[in-house]
Amino acid sequence: MPLDSRFKGVGAALITPFDEKNEIDYPGLKKLIDLVTDGGVDYLVVQGTTGESPTVTSKEKKDILAFTIKNNTKSLPIVYGVGGNDTRAVLETISNTDFSGVDAILSVCPYYNKPSQDGIIAHFTAIADASPVPVLLYNVPGRTVINMKADTIVALSAHPNIIGIKDAGGSIEQSMELAARVPEDFILLSGDDNLVTTMVSVGWHGVISVIANAFPREFTDLTWHALEGRFPEAAKLQLAFLEFDTLLYIESNPVGIKKCLEIKGICSSDVRLPLLKATDKLGAQLENAMKREGFI
């Protein structure tokens, strides 16, 4: 089978804007969707970790998905976050979800209960068997404690409904091993914005990006420069974002990127507890970096 090109390039891992009452800010979400769409991203990722999915209710998730589909003016592909550490609960969510307008799900590696690699395979096999749309795996050991090993990912890549992976493991060695071992039609997506150019250079196909929320045009240009072999141009932009990538996570994600969006006038920087909104110090650092790089 050919690679599913809908998910090549940049997927914007959309934040969830909140208002002063800590409710969903739908006007802010509309402005965000318009910003990333006009900025040229290739697809939208709804209710991943960057969307604060652990503190968004099931009803809110469905409402956010429906709103995003309704306001997806350019009919970009949509990836919806459906994952967890209770396989039965994930399967129940799948059975209770209307997938109209959804092109794939992004499903995180089970966290906290630390399954074995065989347990991970069984978990994702059950999800892929049940899902009416293709599945993108999500490996993020910084949040889940365990790393999905290359052998595990290669084994799962044989499932006909598992079409790719977002990997935020930060290991260039594992990235190269995957590029060498998975089928040619298996989609390899960076989960680390600061490694996009490097990972594309060894055969990866794009990124699901945090930075693309606030800087969609610049990050889409970066990614497609790399994908089309213009590595000097990609490297120049990659290095311009190097300081951003450090700052964005100092006070946890999506605290930093929400502050960038507030500076740009898209939405407030409010988050839900136990996260706290960006400190004045971080806000000043981000604004100074944005000005220095010419992003505002």
Automatic annotation (TrEMBL):
Keywords assigned by UniProt, alphabetized: Amino-acid biosynthesis, Cytoplasm, Diaminopimelate biosynthesis, Lyase, Lysine biosynthesis, Schiff base
A GO biological process held by the record: diaminopimelate biosynthetic process
InterPro entries membership: Aldolase_TIM (IPR013785), DapA (IPR005263), DapA-like (IPR002220), Schiff_base-form_aldolases_AS (IPR020625)
Site (Part of a proton relay during catalysis): T49, Y112
Catalytic activity annotation: L-aspartate 4-semialdehyde + pyruvate = (2S,4S)-4-hydroxy-2,3,4,5-tetrahydrodipicolinate + H2O + H(+)
Pathway annotation from the record: Amino-acid biosynthesis; L-lysine biosynthesis via DAP pathway; (S)-tetrahydrodipicolinate from L-aspartate: step 3/4
Claim: Lyase is one of the keywords in the record: yes
Entry's Gene Ontology cellular component terms: cytosol
Recorded GO MF terms: 4-hydroxy-tetrahydrodipicolinate synthase activity
Compartments where located: Cytoplasm
Location of the active site: Y138, K166
Principal subcellular localization: cytoplasm
SUPFAM superfamilies: Aldolase
Pfam family, one: DHDPS
Residues that hold pyruvate according to the record: T50, I208
Record-listed E.C. numbers: 4.3.3.7
Subunit structure: Homotetramer; dimer of dimers.
Homology family: Belongs to the DapA family.
Role: Catalyzes the condensation of (S)-aspartate-beta-semialdehyde [(S)-ASA] and pyruvate to 4-hydroxy-tetrahydrodipicolinate (HTPA).
Name of the protein this chain belongs to: 4-hydroxy-tetrahydrodipicolinate synthase
Organism of origin: Dyadobacter luteus
